[in-house]
């Protein structure tokens, strides 16, 4: 390449800065977008916090610049996402240190690099718009969740005004007529005590979106046509593009995992019968209680289906690492089940032996599953996971929610429904239809390729 080591970038005319929110589900799509833009001739500088910092060695063609994040170790370890965001935003905005602005100034002053066209940032990083404006840098927002999720944020004032939010126990199943097919329980909300904080955060994130020169959403036109239409007509932003699923636009997909991927599981998958395996993973943040963990373990064992189960360090509350498998469990699943700490997920989902995905409905996982035609059992916990589940079940009919208490008998039943019964087979057929739509939008002349071309043109015009 022309820019090994990120130094000899003379042939690249312009540069973009990218600044992802430092969580796995936000880092991945930003890196995929950066890869796609780099492949189209732009130089890339990655801004990152110390918390969940990337390994620069994995992307020698990018520049990496740390931003002081002021995240106290205690907050980082607590898993309190809203608290972490507050601490990060406060540190970057601190007037006296002008921390982020200082970083931007020095990045822009680097004359070895082509001139910066703009910064692509995660709208949760509230300090970016002001710091960028202060140094005369244009901003583009990347939304790593669905278009429907942004639609929910846009509707937030209305949702409070009409009394849908904060949610009331007795109204959880009430339809939100303004946002079909969502019900109150599917909305993006926080615990009662944090809802006001979340409301403020989202109001400011929407301001950040509205003050930007453009918006990129990790979705594609055929998946959320009505939702995108609403965003395009209601937001006052010059450009709204949907070039997703971004993981399919990037050729190097295993380079931003914060945990080491267990590639040994692919050999294990190779030995299983076609479409027989249930892949089980709840993403990078969701967690369960030890007693739920036991129910999952026995439910998987009872289903009789081979399974590949990701048990991430910290995913069982109160334990640091995989431990405490119930007595007899390992013997019971010997040969049929495999437990790993972190999977090369896209490779797993693309493997022909994988017949279903029991997941938490994180948006990236949902898009990755759809892209491979894999139907889903959804077990959402928070944030946009409930609304993604609703779309999987009601809008696209490619999966269903496992609701209520986690209990081994009900888990076994859900797995059989997905893997053996007619309903599951129909969901698989529809998932295969969506997979075709994904392939279509990625073809030359497809909506996502067109959106990427437009994006590059737009960036070069800034
Ligand atoms: N992921 C992975 N290996 C795993 C589990 C997850 O590589 O064992 C990746 C997954 O492919 C996705 C991301 O981590 O890109 C998780 O993002 P998502 O939006 O699904 O959920 P979150 O972690 O944000 O809740």
Automatic annotation (TrEMBL):
InterPro entries: UDP_glucos_trans. The keyword RNA-binding does not apply. GO terms for molecular function: quercetin 3-O-glucosyltransferase activity; quercetin 7-O-glucosyltransferase activity. Residues 408-435 form a coiled coil. Keywords: Coiled coil, Transferase. Belongs to the UDP-glycosyltransferase family. This is Uncharacterized protein.
